[in-house]
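Example 3.2
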Amino acid sequence: MEGDSVTLNNRLTEILSGDEFLWWFSYTKITFIAIIDKPTDIFDVYDDVLDGRFRDRLKLDNQTGSLTITNITMKHAGDYEQMTKKLTAIFSLTVYARLPVPVISSNSSNCSSSSSSYCSLVCSVVNVVNVTLSWYKGNSLLSSISASDLSISLSLPLEVEYQDKNSYSCVLNNPISNQTQHLDISQLCHTCSDSVHCCGSTEAVIRLVLSALVGVATVILLVYDIRSRRAEQDQAHIHTPGI
């Protein structure tokens, strides 16, 4: 899996005094990446090849001749060949990307009329390679769809009844790992009656707040009017000539 380390080992327990090991990487072309020459005491890796994809990732075991690749990515997938004077060993490395968690969303309108008893859902993932996306009801497989070695997006629909009490889950998996998203029907599927009830309660709160604001504004205007009238009366009293 991406980010892990892998050791390529032909099960030798030690390098003999006259041994020589050559490591090659083969994907689109054969590239020399490491050498062990026991007679001349040479232990070298060539990690700047192929655009530096192996840079600071190759480690040679001086005792066994095994090769470790750290922090692997999809670019490190391919065939690795270890050549000695006596034998040749080939290792095929497959690297899998870390899986995202599937996303479940409602494929229906905002709400469903009472005449419809089913909720339409879709489970989706993006940019996946060599995976299978599946719907499960409990432990029973309902449907699935697979992606090839090309990075694509996958979507898998499902219809459930609004009152369904069964357990549903959407699972994304490859040969070495999986990610699961459980379905919460009450969160994603709503009937119009539920929406009306919800919106009715919200509307009542809004009306109450507006009524309170209007009341406060009325009081403020009334106080302002009273003060204005008193001020006018005081001004009139000051300018009235004495009798």
